[in-house]
Model the fold of this input.
Amino acid sequence: MATGIGKWFGQAVISFVGGSLESENRRTDFLSNDMRLALLDAVPDQNTAKVWADIADTEIEGPGYTPGGQALTNKTLGFSSATRVTKFDADDVAWDNATISATAAAIYDNSPAADGDKILYGFIDFQGVRSSDTNEFRIQFDPAGLLTSTAS
Done:
């Protein structure tokens, strides 16, 4: 089982509100869009990676793994006024009977057709290589949420 704390990509919030240029019309509906979690063989650069095309070459391959990753299911958004934390969450993700190794997982919007339009939102650094050998490869999300944001 792999665990880790979700981290935002540096450009994710800009993408949530439409992009950094007027020509970019990048908005994501976390609850409705095809949000996915894909396994990677390298930890992505949090500061420069912006779209799936930036990291697609680091996606893993192996028996039991589906290219493009798994769709996030039972997605939720919540806000706690007591802690001022917005929580993005979903069910844990698993690949059954998989023989795979990964060092990280990326959360991205798979709704657009082109890899250059698939926005990256966050990633989980496993703090080392995690493997399965014809077993379940499960990512257990942090109880605090898949991704969180705190208002100051």
About this structure: Helices lie at 12-16. The radius of gyration is 15 Å. The CA atoms of residues 39 and 105 lie 4 Å apart.
